[in-house]
Amino acid sequence: MAVGKSLSTVVHSSCCLKNQYNFYKTAMTSLLVPPMSVRGMTCLDRDAFATVVNIPILKLKSNTIISNIKPIIKKYILKLPEFKPIHKTSDEVIVYLNPEIVTKFEDITENDRQSLVGQYEYFSTKSITLKYENWRGHEILKAILPEDIQPPAAYSLVGHIMQLNLRDIHLPYKTIIGQVFLDKTPNVQTVVNKVNAIDTTFRYFTMEILAGEKNTVTTTKEHGCTYQFDFARVYWNPRLSNEHTRLIACMKKDDVLYDVFAGVGPFAVPAARKGVKVLANDLNPESYKWLQINVTANKIKNNFKAFNMDGRDFLRNIVKNDILSRRDRELHGSEHIIMNLPSSAVEFLDILPDWFTQDELKKKIMGKKKSNQKNKNVFKVATVRSIKLKAKAQKVVTNLKKLDAKGNKIAKKDKTVNMDQLLEDLRKDMQGSSSKANTTQKKHTKANKKRVVSKIALEQTNETAAMIEQMQL
């Protein structure tokens, strides 16, 4: 028993000495640190952070003009929260200097010392008491937490709410961490911690309030738009701000946006303000409620419809019918579909195989209605060896079923090479024809230009038609 007790005492003493060594090692690099006694604190005691330190001072003459001397001393003064480094009374002016920069008067550069001649009375030190208000949040947490645990640095600000994602090692100190962040971060009234993963159905995470008001209804602004919502009941990620802007920049006034998982409107609202027609949907009733509120708050009156339904139903019914309606009316502009559900958006793509019938695809979806399609003359032909050109070629809609060379049967392995050569020759012939046309055009006066251009265009069309007739379709 005696041996065990002695061993325990030795180990305890060793730990204390180690803590003292590490503390004084830190103090040597930074003379301004909170007292060692706060280490391991789990319930915030602000009075425990009071400590007395010796600070170098420079006593100025009472008639010194502060504005004249500030440029000289500003790099030496002590800068702490809630602390005035220049104290002026009717009798004296004292400047508090940073002890990490100045320990003796000679630490001030010679040029600056010369500039101070006639401005000061003496250099000395003075004891002052630094309190909780004078320490920065990071300094406080670093003093409280065990030395092997770094204070949490990452957080998100959403209106008056600060969101933390604390690691397991921080959880025993979560309450005091929340309180320090609340005290030291301007405009923050509530500090919350994410408890688990995002809810897969309604896309919000469970949170716990660590400090401050128990109010999670907040208002925030992003790129000129105002959003109000209950942060505990909806999904909002301020780190997606740049992604919101990037996608909105791709849209134009006559376009339409189908936002399948709209949330409270970070894509839908700015798109509507830009003049884009918006159909926005979210399954979460709370998101749907705040989406409508945000539409009103941002003064969006036209071209906006909100829906509260499953994403698949929204795609199969609302989006499909609107696309078909746009084809019937032959409206201009592009259609954009946004599916901002990173964890499972891909699972909703199973609707694609039977989203549109074959008849709808042929007559409406792949461009204009087939009855309105017109045959146009070939105006440019290129080989398809290039991957980029091949991608362009795949977008071309044509009625040609097969292109063969002069009726000769070609083996499959040589067909691509011969076809490419044939198309290349056709392209060169057409370029030559265009070059001749340009030379002929320059010889005529402006009065005859319109007639000449029409004639050349007709000749070019005839040449092209003749070339195509040489190919067996």
UniProtKB/TrEMBL annotation:
Catalytic activity of the protein: guanosine(37) in tRNA + S-adenosyl-L-methionine = N(1)-methylguanosine(37) in tRNA + S-adenosyl-L-homocysteine + H(+)
UniProt biased composition (Polar residues): 431-440
Name of the protein: tRNA (guanine(37)-N1)-methyltransferase
Compartment(s) where it occurs, according to its Swiss-Prot or TrEMBL record: Mitochondrion matrix; Nucleus; Cytoplasm
GO cellular component: mitochondrial matrix; nucleus
Pfam family, one: TYW2_N_2
Subunit: Monomer.
Keyword Calcium carried by entry: no
GO molecular function: tRNA (guanine(37)-N1)-methyltransferase activity
PROSITE patterns recorded: SAM_MT_TRM5_TYW2 (PS51684)
Keywords: Cytoplasm, Methyltransferase, Mitochondrion, Nucleus, S-adenosyl-L-methionine, Transferase, tRNA processing
Class in the EC hierarchy, top level: transferase
Biological processes annotated in GO: mitochondrial tRNA methylation; ribosome biogenesis; tRNA N1-guanine methylation
Family as reported in the entry's similarity comment: Belongs to the TRM5 / TYW2 family. Belongs to the class I-like SAM-binding methyltransferase superfamily. TRM5/TYW2 family.
Occurrences of domain SAM-dependent methyltransferase TRM5/TYW2-type (ranges): 155-418
Region feature (Disordered): 428-451
